[in-house]
């Protein structure tokens, strides 16, 4: 029997995450390289409804694992349950979302399966009989084509690269619900808190000025705010690193783990252009990038590229604007 | 519980990726050996987290561990300067790229018998972006692991850690893990501290523990990098030329043409 491609569905608070659709799109593309059945797995304390949704929408077979201790995501339980189940299914590939949840269990699961784990996959293609997975290094400056050398490969797939297929299944897939019995874990998720609801300014902003690590230090944010101040209806945003470092509030973060924005104008200041960031702003109308590194990946997506030190260029821009008005 | 032992996995990365190129054969990445190294910023946050725990429980001992060529020592020395008590260098005789599977296997082999209560690592490295070393070390040592942690508190009496992680933007999961455990750190409440003069002086007189990587066996790489390549340009990306002032004028003109500015 052909070894299946397994997709692990991602969900949160009873709803499927958009990453699940993209994983299925990825699995369908992967299937172009080898004919194989696609098997979707979903784990939770009540996965049946979501399993039906997937089976109906995609026509793929779904196994739901019902575990009462999985009211919330638990990495230890995911690894325990999946290692057993996948040993039985013996998949060629296991597709997991490249999200904080997927990244929490994918490497450990791979280890238990004796499989390689390739994280952050952006594309897949076949070359000379070898299936290659492309992933980014150095903030997206360089890509690598990687070939798995283990019988099973665990892949985490970066959101934003695979368009969900148009739903047109011949009929719903088969659904199987398996119950596990209160497996114990070495860690417990006690509660999930919502960060205090913060109003995002991005929805109303026609112009977003965004700061990356290249601004050098927190104090230089003043320049970024000044620059944003030139434009009516503007907002200041930051890269993941700038927000993780506490230079800007997390509600201002643009990227895979932050907001996805598409303003008319996006000015990227000192942003290297990591995959993580590009996923949040690539649909912007017009993109200006300022970076002192002429090879920064952000320039691949910019309409206007400026290689300059921000501390010199932004004051020059503000001064030029002042003179003209 | 007696004095806690914490290990922090520290990866030196090039201070700037400006001079990184693909080698002519397309099979390897060339970094400029003159580009200074610095601590991967997520590992720096992990070290700060360890130092905060020691601030609260002064008996705590902190070890830092790195895998790579001899020149990586400078970054381990910096860790000592920031306050780590001990540095372990798994020394390789090559500059070439190590897969996370290899790095993690070596770290696990080196520390297996040392009984660390807590192993911290950055959520990922800034160059490789794999996000795997912490979780893989946990598997090798059969320890529980949680990733993307932004806050960790230790309850020594219970041998447990209470942590907050970010499962998705705008959410915080509160978890409890039994120790020993592995955590990967994504953020923190404190900016990593600067090395102090007294620590730097102490570090100067202190030797790092050097372990030859070859003595730890040869783990399987599990994967092969067929080629490296540059990403394709998605937009035209016209580069403006001239002095900063000239570029500013030019940009201003374009922004006005497109009615972004009055």
Structure description:
The complex is a heterodimer of chains A (325) and B (262). Chain A has 325 residues and is an alpha/beta fold. Chain A folds into 2 domains: 5-179, Rossmann fold; 202-324, Rossmann fold, CATH 3.40.50.1220. In chain A, 27% of the residues lie in helices and 30% in strands. Chain A has a 9-stranded mixed beta sheet with strand order 9-8-7-10-6-1-4-5-11. The longest helix of chain A has 15 residues, at 75-89. The radius of gyration of chain A is 22 Å and the shape is elongated. The termini of chain A are far apart. The mean pLDDT of chain A is 92. By secondary structure, chain B is of the alpha/beta class. Chain B has one domain (5-216): Rossmann fold, CATH 3.40.50. Chain B is 26% helix and 29% strand. Chain B is built from 6 helices and 15 strands. Chain B has helices at residues 41-56, 73-82, 100-111, 133-140, 197-204, 244-257; strands at residues 5-9, 12-14, 21-22, 29-30, 37-39, 61-68, 86-91, 118-122, 145-155, 160-165, 171-178, 181-185, 209-212, 223-229, 238-239. In chain B, the strands form 3 sheets. Chain B has a 9-stranded mixed beta sheet with strand order 11-10-9-12-8-1-6-7-13, with helices on both faces. A two-stranded antiparallel sheet of chain B has the order 2-5. In chain B, helix 2 crosses helix 5. Chain B starts with a strand and ends in a 5-residue tail after the last helix. The interface between A and B is large, with 100 and 80 residues. Strand 17 of chain A pairs parallel with strand 15 (238-239) of chain B.
